[in-house]
Design a protein that fits this description.
With about 130 residues, the protein is mainly α. The protein contains 7 helices and no strands. It starts with a helix and ends with a helix.
Length: about 130
Amino acid sequence: MDPASLDFLFALFNLGPEIEASPIEDTMTSDTLQRLAATVRARRTEAAGKSYTRQLLDAGPERCARKFGEEAIETVIAGLGQDDEALTKEAADLLFHLIVLLESRNIDFESVVRVLESREGVSGLAEKAARGS
């Protein structure tokens, strides 16, 4: 993972010094994930024989959750290794399968973004204490 990505994650989860992402970076990240979420939603109407995403959605939330779990484990394994490219690819798979899982439950990706935005600038410890967990 490149240093800019690490700085962004540290700031997002209040793990390090505050940084301010440029609007271009915010737009690119947001646009990419928004397009991915829109593509996943559009796959609901495509032929199942041509779309892996459609097959997952047709199998239901349980199958989508299991697939997300598999990808999470693969991401953890890659994170324990030394291959940055492998971790990057597994992280991309994990994000994709999270969006598929959300779609399978009819949860709009934008709802997740709003939760993250509401936590922005809040100490992770304070946010966790407010949730009571």
